[in-house]
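Give me the fold.
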Amino acid sequence: MTTTETVRQTANISRVSATPEAINLITKLMAMHGPLMFHQSGGCCDGSAPMCYPLKEFKVSAQDVFMGEIGGQPLYMGKSQFEYWQHTHIIIDVVPGRGSGFSLEAPEGVRFLTRSRIFTDAENDALDASGPPPNGIERPAY
């Protein structure tokens, strides 16, 4: 465990969580596809939604920020997107509709959706004290 992870666990502040509906879908997708990973790259349309991939099908890099885990599966965000979202707790939800054809939930008639809430001043202070989250090289998906 890195120092950053130790401080973050001590502060008990997570950058990401998922709704019960999203956890149920993650469980279903894991049964179908095995371990998963999530990535949110930014941009418009589906680029701003979290994409779900089989664990080894998407390579993360130093330009990706490890946000935490949902349903035991890692979630990364593009570094430029993280600059906008760093002061918010990310909540992954699922809604009816079709997202990108590349995301594993697409055939299920639903799509993952990012919701958020602003961190409190105390949460921001604790996260600032813990240092930046690891990138995809420091905390690879597998």
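The longest strand covers residues 88-96.
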